[in-house]
Amino acid sequence: GGADRVFNLAFSVTGGSLATNQKVSWKVNGKSFSPPSLPTLLKVLGGASQESDFDSSENAFVIKNGEVVEINITGVVHPHPFHLHGKVFDIVKLNGVTNYVNPPRRDVVTTGPGTTTIRFKAENSGPWILHCHVEWHLQGGLAVIFVEDPDDIRTNTHPTQAWQDLCPAYNALPPEMQ
Predict the structure, then answer these.
(1) For residues 7 and 61, is the Cβ–Cβ distance under 8 A?
(2) Whole-prediction pTM value?
(3) Which of 76, 129, 147, 159 falls between 20 and 30 A from 40, CA-CA?
(4) What is the rounded CA–CA span in Å between residue 33 and residue 127?
(5) pLDDT tens-digit series, residues 131-177
């Protein structure tokens, strides 16, 4: 069957030097990912339910439980290993070869020139990041977040006091340790 939701993610890079990764900005659909000051999960627990509830720099996409989600990744000239947290996905298109019959299942796919397409069924609620596994590319903004089933997250996530103490403890650290 077909996908319920299709996301076309066009990756690009601007500025700086790719050789040294100095002042390089990696973008998805024209926006660089930047970790929000209030974590995505805390926003969801506070009531965020639609894409407009998140910072534009979070590159957040809201998906519903049960949806079949297809992601088309384009704009990649050199190989990049993309990892999707919280999911195992089907690689249905890679290097010009399409396979919906018996696709390989992974949580990382190395993209190359052309379109890479992955597909999964949304059945694990949470905010799940899709990012390049090359650390400095992630730091440069090469990521998006899929917020799966915000209502279910709020219903089934019950933070303990120890969990709630994590952010204040982290924020109290000196900047060089954060």
Answers:
(1) yes
(2) 0.91
(3) 76
(4) 14
(5) 999 998 899 999 999 999 999 999 999 989 998 898 888 889 999 98
Could you tell me if 147 and 62 are in contact, meaning their C-beta atoms sit under 8 angstroms apart?
yes
User: CA 104, CA 160: separation in Å to the nearest integer?
Assistant: 38
In three state form, how does the secondary structure of the chain look?
CCCCEEEEEEEEEECCECCCCECCEEEECCECCCCCCCCHHHHHHCCCCCHHHCCHHHCEEEECCCCEEEEEEECCCCCEEEEECCCCEEEEEECCEECCCCCCEECEEEECCCCEEEEEECCCCEEEEEEECCHHHHHCCCEEEEEECHHHHHHHCCCCHHHHCHHHHHHCCCHHHC
- Sort strands 126-132 and 5-14 into parallel, antiparallel or unpaired: unpaired
What separation in angstroms does the CA of 76 have from each of 37, 103, 106, 107?
A: 29, 21, 19, 18
Token pair recorded at residue 132: 């390049």
